[in-house]
Amino acid sequence: MQTLIASYLFQNKTCPLPGLGTFSILNATAKADFANKLIQAPHPMVEFVQAETNPRQLTEYISQSIALNFQDAADALKAYCNGLKELIDAGNTISLAQVGSIFINENGKIIFKAEDLPASFLQPVVAERVIHPEAEHSMLVGDKETTNKIMSELLAAKTTTTNRWWIWAIVLGAVGLFLLLLYFLQSNGGSSFGNCIKL
Fold it and tell me: Which end of the chain is more exposed for a tag (fewer CB within 10 A), N or C?
């Protein structure tokens, strides 16, 4: 019966036990570890609440699994749960395979301690960042939402207006050379640094 209860719990995420309470599986979220480029697996937790729910679906599952009619499966489940309740009330700790253990505390309240899942079920996954430069995606710049294509166009437009001081230097150098050439041509190749007499 324990294996049927565990199987039903893991398949349906909830398992009512008449006279005891209800087991349910709570799914946690996966955790991202950006520093190590890993995503940690979600760690599901089994919870036990002393609120009873309708065991009809569990009874149908038991009757189909071990080929009993519905009433015999309901009687077997009720007898099993009553036996568990008597053992727990007597102060015994009951271990349910793959689920956890149930015991009663000093105040008379039923306490459940979940069994940890094997570490092989909770292996982290390597998460390498993939960048597609041609793909368009939205991004937040300041308080304005825009896309990466619009931002690259905006930044490319700013880089085309570069400083052109070297053009002015070439123009001034050419003007200076032109003036020197004009001066030497007007003086007929003579020099003002010495004695220059035409013959």
Answer: C
Q: How far apart are CA 121 and CA 45, in angstroms?
A: 13
Q: What is the pLDDT along the chain (199 residues), one digit of tens a residue?
A: 888 888 888 888 888 988 888 988 888 888 888 889 899 888 888 888 888 888 899 999 988 888 888 899 899 999 998 998 889 888 888 888 878 888 888 888 888 888 877 667 788 889 887 877 788 888 888 888 998 888 888 877 655 556 788 898 999 999 999 998 888 888 765 555 555 565 5
Per-residue tokens: 68 = 């009993």
Whole-model pTM over 0.85: no
Buried b (16+ CB within 10 A) or exposed e, 151-185: eeeeeeeeeeeeeeeeeeeeeeeeeeeeeeeeeee
Q: Can you tell me the distance from the alpha carbon of 58 to that of 4, in angstroms, rounded to the nearest whole number?
A: 9
DSSP 90: T
